[in-house]
Design brief:
The protein is of the alpha/beta class and about 300 residues long. About 50% of the residues lie in helices and about 10% in strands. The chain has two domains: about 220 residues, no CATH class; about 55 residues, no CATH class.
């Protein structure tokens, strides 16, 4: 209102608003957290196999490739039901056939880990046990007539029979109110809120509120609301951090190149110390002092 004195927000609060962004991987974070809990993982299994009501949570084993300490491959979700079936579940918001290749790579890695775990003798004459694979992609974009299954031979070899085949079943979350449908609905609500509020904390909190009202992942979101907000948020814009880091690395490399060139020109007596800034704007007064000091020490 006119005439009111607007008080400045505390600096800490202002900084928090400026620096708090929803992660680019916010939906991925929720996916991982949701299905790390066997309570929801069993719901996923039953959505894939509604005919099986006998399998319990205890029979499910998480075998997701994570590679926390290395730069190796990692996937979204993998689990085993005893030693019978092995499930790989990826999720995508943009359509790409390259998911077939990625799933194949994940499957090979997971089989490798399984055989090592079992001390299987792959060079022996006895046939080893191989859990049957089931490969899925949860697609959170618009279906728009897309297929229920995508295959390696069809998409990459023109449908020709080849030495290896991979088939990935695509799940669109359009079959009732199972956990897959709820997760897809959650991602769509989040996308709507990001369009309205940007990648902000408000977009995250509104997503949670709307989903609870619509009974979408209600139990998960209600029981772990603070945790969900935390995993979806980042203190700083991740892309901005990366851009800043890359720019900093380039600047440091440019300065080092300029420094070496300046030292060489000084030794060759092509320039004087006072002329360094005319040729090398990247170098500060402190840099020039260091160059001058080192040069006099070597003379």
């Amino acid at each position: 209102m006119q005439g009111e004195i607007l008080q400045e927000e505390p600096k800490e609060k202002t900084a928090e608003k400026k620096d708090a962004f929803a992660k680019y991987t916010a939906k991925d974070s929720v996916f991982s957290t949701l299905f790390q809990d066997k309570k929801y993982l069993i719901q996923l299994y039953r959505a894939l196999h509604p005919e099986d009501m006998e399998t319990t949570e205890d029979a499910l084993m998480d075998i997701t490739i994570r590679n926390v300490l290395t730069n190796g491959i990692y996937n979204d979700l993998a689990f085993r039901v005893g030693d019978k079936v092995m499930f790989l579940v990826e999720h995508q918001s943009s359509w790409t056939m390259n998911i077939i290749i990625r799933v194949l790579m994940y499957l090979v890695q997971i089989y490798h880990d399984y055989f090592e775990e079992q001390d299987a003798d792959l060079y022996g004459s006895k046939k080893v046990h191989v859990p049957e694979p089931e490969l899925y992609m949860i697609f959170t974009g618009e279906r728009a007539g897309r297929p229920e299954t995508i295959s390696l031979s069809k998409e990459f070899f023109g449908g020709k029979e080849c030495a290896i085949e991979v088939k990935v079943k695509v799940l669109y979350g359009d079959k009732g109110n199972d956990i897959i449908s709820q997760y897809v609905a959650f991602t769509k609500v989040y996308n709507e809120q990001v369009k309205q509020y940007g990648r902000s904390q408000e977009a995250v909190t509104e997503t949670i509120r709307i989903c609870k009202d619509r009974d979408v992942l209600r139990e998960f979101l209600a029981g772990r609301e603070k945790e969900v907000i935390s995993i979806m948020m980042a203190l700083f814009d991740e892309e901005k951090i990366m851009r800043t880091h890359i720019a900093s690395e380039k600047k440091a490399a440019s300065k080092e190149t300029a420094r070496k060139a300046a030292e060489k020109m000084l030794r060759d007596r092509k320039i004087t110390v006072d002329e360094i800034t005319e040729y090398f704007s990247e170098l500060s007064a402190e840099d020039i002092q260091e160059i001058e000091k080192e040069l006099f020490q070597t003379i």
